[in-house]
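Dataset card, provenance and construction

Sequences and ligand SMILES were collected as paired inputs. For each pair, a complete structure of the chain with the small molecule in place was predicted and serialized as structure tokens. The example below shows a pair involving magnesium ion. Curators did not alter the output after generation; any descriptive sentences attached to a record were derived from the structure itself.
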Amino acid sequence: MGNDTWKILIADDDQDVLAALRLVFKAEHCEIVGCNSPDKALSSAKSHEFDLALIDLNYSEDTTSGREGLRLLTQLSGINPDLPVVVMTAWSSVALAVQAMQKGAGDFIEKPWDNQRLLSVVRNQIALGRSRRSEKRLAAENALLRGVENHRFIAESASMRSVIDVVTRVAPSSASILLTGEHGTGKSLLARHVHALSNRSRKPLVTVNVGGLAESVFESEMFGHVKGAFTDAQNERVGRFEMADGGTLFLDEIANIPMAQQAKLLRVLEEGEFERVGSSRTQTADVRVISATNTLIEDLKREAIFRQDLLFRLNTVEISLPPLRARIDDIEALCAQFLEQARTRYGGGPVGITDTAFAALKSHTWPGNVRELNHVVERALLMCGGEQIDDGDLQLNHATRQRVALESLSLEQAEHHLIETALQRNDNNVLAAAQELGLSRSAMYRRLDKHGLKDPEQS
Ligand SMILES: Nc1ncnc2c1ncn2[C@@H]1O[C@H](COP(=O)(O)OP(=O)(O)OP(=O)(O)O)[C@@H](O)[C@H]1O
Ligand SMILES: [Mg+2]
């Protein structure tokens, strides 16, 4: 059948069938492991690599329903999602074959089988399985080497290594992941990596800043609308859920969404169903959800601000990114990457960082976390005249030195100034700035309007 030996797992409780199949495959120089029960097949699959599994659907428990075989099929793909499975059934039943295909079987064979058809089905399935596996492997390798958009996810410190451990384990599955961590700790970057490492990486990663969505547009943004659904709906619009079908939906700033919207979100997450605004046609989307928040999970667990059933949907796996001050072992590697990126952007500049500068970087408290470090390195590159960035180029107390004397300002001016500097400190993140100032989201937007400060995230 080919140059290399194929290893095939066969499960059938009929010894005669096993013997006959052995003969067929032996003539093709295949290596066969025959099992007469689902349990034995499972333990073989756990301990050996196979190119294909050929399984009967009916065993001793009952001989017509196919229940045992379908269960084995599911369990096999749980062990190895890439293992091609071909099912056999003695009681020719189209319905059962269809059910098996829906559960992930690659193809089916009716008993008594025709040797030529059996071999051709097996050959095809093995070829398909191999190309699927090598594609996946290549994609995962590339994603890791390249990083996402040439941006490696740095994780040298012990605490970040355990984050990476969890990420590599859960990324391929479709489990919902909730990322928590202070602003600038890398939640958005990590979401992109999880998607890139998942089985959905060829489908889109769609990001929605749900915390920043005005209530009036939430539904049409998330679920789309039909033409004429409301006054401004001149054209139909595809919502984010639909766009993310087959891929990943990244819901950023999840803690900031009002209760009414939480209910709408819950429904689509539970049922995978939604309607476009203005339409009564129910649509479905298969979406993996990653969400992020800088609110502590304990705060989200206080019933009052967040629906617990929604939280339960979102945090199947919870990954918490530690603040940069708690992982100074990452600082050198992060600096190296940021310096390299800045050198590319500005066409050169210093090539290294002095020990004194590193000492200063490691003792800074980094309220803006990794994002702040990136900015500090970039600014230092521009300030530095020599080959090595030194302590003085870092300007770590830059912000404090620029402080304006509030006493000299009118109330209006002071408000303007405070909002402006809060935005700067928070890298133009309106919600973070609002939180720091103790303002609600809408109060913040009103003040941005009043002071003629445009929402920097919309510009
Ligand atoms: N581990 C890391 N390795 C390399 N770069 C990182 C890492 N973590 C964060 N960064 C970089 O730091 C910056 C901030 O990260 P990111 O935007 O992902 O943070 P965030 O937690 O989503 O912040 P926010 O809560 O404000 O949305 C980005 O430029 C990102 O690429
Ligand atoms: Mg983010």
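Derived descriptions for this record:
The longest helix spans residues 115-146.
Residues 187-188, 252, 292 surround magnesium ion (ligand 2) (CB under 6 Å).
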